[in-house]
Amino acid sequence: MEALLATKPGPDADSIRSNSPGTGAPAPARVRERVALAVLLLGTAGAYLWRIGVNDMADNFYAAAVWSGTQDWKALLFGSIDPGNFITVDKPPLSLWVMGMSARVFGFGSASMLVPQALMAVGAVALLYATVTRVAGNRGAGLLAGAVLAVTPVVALMFRYNHPDAAMVLLMTAAAYCVVRAVPTANVRWLMFAGVALGFAFLAKMLEGLMVLPAFALAYLIAAPVVLRSRLLHLVWATLALIVSAGWYVVLTMLWPAASRPYLAGSTDNSLLNVVFGFNGFDRMLGRGAGGHTGGHISLPPGYRIPPQLVQSFNDFGPAGPARLFHGESGFQISWLLPAALVAFGLTLVSRRHAPRTDTIRSGALIFGLWMLTVGLAFSLAGSLEHAYYVVTIAPAIAATLVIGGHELWRRRDEVFGRLGAAAVIATAGIWGFLVLQRNPSWHPELRGTLVIAAVAAALGLAATTLPIPAIVRRPATAILLIVGIIAALSGPAAYTAATLPQAHSGRSPVVGPPPPPETGFAAIIRTQMRSFADGGAFTDQRILTMLTGTTTDWSAAVERSSVAAAIELASRTPVISIGGFANTDPAPTLEQFQHLVHTGRVTYYLAQELHLPPTWRVGDAPLRTEPWTAAERRDIADWVTANFAATRIGSVAVYDLTEPKN
Q1: Helix axes 562-572, 521-534, angle to 10 degrees
Q2: Residue 191 contacts by C-beta under 8 Å, 6 or more apart in sequence?
Q3: What angle do CA 343, 157, 536 make, to 5 degrees?
Q4: 321: Cβ–Cβ under 8 A, 6 or more apart, which residues?
Q5: 483-531, pLDDT tens digit by residue?
Q6: Taking the CB of residue 480, how many other CB atoms lie within 10 A of it?
Q7: Which residues pair with 560 in a beta bridge?
Q8: Co-location of 70 and 216 in the same domain
Q9: Whole-angstrom Cα distance, residue 404 to residue 346?
Q10: Fewer CB within 10 A of the end CB, N or C, for the chain?
């Protein structure tokens, strides 16, 4: 082990130092560079912390788990949706640990929950700055990469939200930094640190946090300056570090008696590995309906169905295919600089094609470019992905790939290749930014025109510098045109980020940019009703809350879906049993378990929403239903409750008092 950790650079380590600008620790920062970094980090913190309370509880699902963690340590450890520890959220709890500890120290509230998320953005920007600085050997490139990340709309959205994506992306960026530190000298310690970071990324969002593994491993195999056998052995050690850093929690859930811990949501057998490889793994990738489509798990009477187009309207990621990342909501969230980053990646590989195998610039481009390609391809082809904000996973890769490529072209600015390459990148960014803004034509139409004109003009100007022009004129002109092109390329995403920050976001699928126009028509009304159902709006009637706060049982009520239970908990500050978990597919509780809870006096109420089914939901000659239908997927529990207990109707909610049976 000690021999491995002391592995020396191979014979080609010196060649990489002499042939690549970015070969290790950069030169000490000058005062102006330190000031620029401070401005970048403080600016990111100020922008992301500004009016952060506007998002209030953000997603009730995770907010309720944070609140539960302030009420009970076991709930914090396992990420329980309720302080009674009936069932967890459907993700590992790492991000909940951070938000929960903050809430325990400062008191539960919007700020204590979301401020740590915003500070993670500052950390991610700082890490990307440090990483790109090492690759390019230039602090200006690092500053630009950090700025690109900060002005990416989906980053501004998700690092002010309470989803686990912020912690996951921070840890993935930390892993990339460690790999960049490891490659030039084949440093196995830094590679193991990368494994540790990815292990904790797994504890934030399971397999999604590990999607960068192929990119990182391949880059190390290609570029590390030792023989292949040593490279493979180093990756084994890094894999072991990953397994230990992630596996301890998996083992904990296995060894902890199931009867004394919450049910692990998303599993069919109360095991975390089932969640990893089923609900949150291959089910999503293969399109087997990992859950989450509002309306997709509501039981309807024979002859009725929810229109498929209505269910699909809740999927903001769009259908699978190569265009998924470029269109719809995901286009607004991430695609602004994606085409330009792809062009920059290709040009970097062409530019460094004759460099040694261990070339630092190329290895850095591979680390981030392969991250961008592999994760982007997986998202494009996955069959059951619902939320556009998942694309935040590739935001650091796009920023780094674009800037590494841009710096390589800047390094070759005295050559035709460098100037034409820069022109291609700038033109691509400007034209695509124009096309993205064109999809929202009523919002600042002057911006898209200015953006594309400036970008195309800068690109044409760079192309014109390939003509015979004196160097004394060409060099300053090239620099000015590049600056104009960069500003034009960043103006689109920066403007959409600025429009995102002050908007209030809530629910499972937050979106970026200015407020969308109000929906109209029958479908919009139904969509609003269904979203209200999924988010628990109908269940937070003050009359219901008054009943729940007066209970003394372990759980005040039981209701289907964790999102509904979460809304009730936050409004009543009482524990609520979530039947069926997040997607209403978990076998918890069974009918027998629920009956035992009722008979032993541990739960007071059962709540169910009643729907008036539109005639358009009928199929064929099914009779028209005029009476409301209890919207319950777990018909065994719903039928047992309705058969044995009387209902009090409050609005569209049927409230069953489980302490007073009919007979």
Answers
A1: 70
A2: 178, 179, 182, 220, 234, 235, 237, 238
A3: 135
A4: 380, 381
A5: 999 999 999 999 999 999 999 998 888 999 998 776 665 556 555 655 6
A6: 12
A7: 579
A8: yes
A9: 11
A10: C
Contact in structure between 290 and 279 (CB atoms under 8 Å): yes
Q: Are residues 427 and 532 in the same domain?
A: no
Structure tokens at 153: 């709309």
The answer to whether position 285 is within a domain reads: no
Amino acid found at 288:
R
Q: Is 646 in the same domain as 545? A: yes
> Where are the alpha helices (H) located in 79-187, listed in sequence order?
94-106, 110-136, 139-150, 153-158, 165-182
How far apart CA 207 and CA 188 sit, in angstroms, is 24
Residue 631 per-residue DSSP state = -
Judge whether 234 lies within some domain: yes
| Residue 18: per-residue pLDDT | 34
CA atoms within 13 A on the CB side of 172: 33
Rounded to whole angstroms, how far apart are CA atoms 318 and 329?
Answer: 8
Where b means 16+ CB within 10 Å and e means fewer, 392-412 reads bbbbbbbbbbbbbbbbbbbbb
> ∠ CA 335-336-338 to the nearest 5 degrees?
55
Same-domain status, 202 and 342:
yes
Same structural domain for residues 322 and 376?
A: yes
Note whether residue 305 is domain-resident. Answer: no
Summarize pLDDT for 260-273 with one digit per residue, the tens. 999 999 898 999 88
Round to whole Å and give the CA distance between 546 and 287.
42
- Please name which of 372, 386, 89 lies closest in space to residue 211, comparing C-alpha atoms: 372
Considering only residues 241 and 508, tell me which one the structure prediction assigns the higher pLDDT.
Answer: 241
Cβ atoms of residues 60 and 566 within 8 Å? yes
**pLDDT averaged over the chain?**
89
Chain centroid offset of residue 49 CA:
19
Backbone dihedral region of 521: left (phi > 0), alpha (psi from -120 to 50 degrees) or beta? Answer: left
pTM of the model: 0.91
Query: Which positions ≥6 away from 494 have C-beta within 8 Å?
Result: 151
Give the type of residue at 537.
G
Task: Give, in order, the Cα–Cα distances in Å from 179 to each of 182, 198, 421, 473, 619.
Answer: 5, 11, 28, 41, 57
Same domain for 593 and 545, yes or no, is: yes
Tokens 């470029």 sit on residue:
326
In a 10 Å sphere around its CB, with 0-12 CB exposed, 13-18 middle and 19+ buried, how is residue 311 labelled?
middle
Rounded-to-integer distance, Cα 446 and Cα 289, Å:
42
How many other C-beta atoms lie within 10 A of the C-beta of residue 321?
11
Q: Is the dihedral of CA 655, 109, 388, 204 positive or negative?
A: negative
Who's near 277: CB < 8 A, 6+ residues apart? Answer: 207
Q: Kindly state the DSSP code that residue 291 receives in the 8-state scheme.
A: S
**Structural domain containing residue 601:** 522-661
Q: State which H helix or E strand residue 559 sits in.
A: strand 555-560
Looking at the domain assignment, is residue 247 inside a domain?
yes
Percent of the chain clearing pLDDT 90 (strictly above)? 73
Contact predicate 194/419, CB 8 Å:
no
Task: Tally the domains of the chain.
Answer: 2
